[in-house]
Write a structure and sequence with these properties.
Length: about 280
């Protein structure tokens, strides 16, 4: 399949197959009401394991939920029973919000067949499909540590490409945060954006029912934001979650090569040496 999403019909027809694994990636922004683990316990797609974005992360940094080492990730994903020889389908409770972060994480850790459930649990519930509350008994897997560096950008790499313009930076935060008119949700992080960055708020790609917009609509949204789809692109956001949603949209357009700036604005805006622009 070339599209990075699968439908609820597609997944429902394959539930329980050994070669299809389902992952619940529900996560909430700081200050929002909700906990992914509580949502999972209240009802999840049968057979789904819960991927905790904040727990499966590098805890030796002050940045939220950045990628752990390949070794630490392999151990954590192995405990969940995830396998590279399976087709992995990731969803979240809001439709499409945090699932793309885990979709990108798995791809960055060399999982070859990873997809996002279009509409997520929101659509699954609306269609009256089955749920369960008990977690499955996951059979641990042995995973070799692997990383795909081409899908990840670091602070030093971002400094270089911002200085030389070698790639377009597309920011998924809302316009007031991007322009520096609204404060950041995390303390100590300045307002504004990276020099030369373009703004495409992630909500522009998602419909009210939680499904991703069509290829034509996604293309139009990127072009309206001033993005040249033929040139290199790096996506960013507040902490690397909705940046992955932009990367998902680009994958729908056939651009599965787009990296995410993992530390995103929390790292850039929280470092005194990085330049910040306020305004359009």
């Amino acid at each position: 399949m070339s599209d990075p999403l699968v439908t609820t019909d597609w997944l429902a027809a394959r539930l329980g197959r050994a070669d299809v694994q389902v992952v619940d990636a529900t996560w909430y922004m700081p200050g929002e009401e909700g906990f992914g683990s509580a949502d999972y316990a209240a009802g999840h797609i049968p057979g789904a394991v819960f991927f905790d974005i904040d727990a499966i992360a590098d805890h030796d940094t002050d940045l939220p939920h950045v990628l752990p080492s390949a070794e630490a990730f392999a151990a954590a994903a192995g405990r969940l029973g995830l396998r590279r020889d399976a087709t992995v389908v990731v969803y979240d409770a809001r439709g499409i919000f945090s699932a793309p972060r885990v979709w990108w994480t798995l791809r960055a850790m060399a999982f070859p067949q990873v997809f996002v459930l279009d509409g997520g649990l929101k659509r699954w519930r609306a269609e009256g499909r089955p749920l369960e509350t008990a977690p499955p008994t996951a059979k641990p897997s042995e995973l070799a540590p692997r990383l795909t560096p081409a899908l990840v950008r670091s602070l030093d790499q971002m400094k270089g490409l911002v200085a030389n313009g070698s790639a377009q930076v597309v920011d998924a935060r809302n316009a007031p945060r991007f322009r520096g008119e609204a404060g950041e949700p995390r303390p100590g992080v300045r307002s504004g954006h990276m020099p030369g960055a373009l703004n495409l708020p992630w909500g522009e790609l998602v419909r009210g029912d939680g499904t991703l917009k069509t290829e034509a609509e996604v293309r139009a949204a990127f072009e309206a934001a001033g993005v040249d789809l033929a040139r290199p692109i790096v996506t960013t956001c507040g902490s690397g979650v909705t940046a992955a949603l932009l990367a998902l949209g680009l994958a729908r357009l056939g651009r599965g090569d787009v990296p995410v700036y993992d530390g995103s604005w929390t790292e850039w805006g929280g470092r005194a040496e990085t330049p910040v622009v306020a305004g359009p």
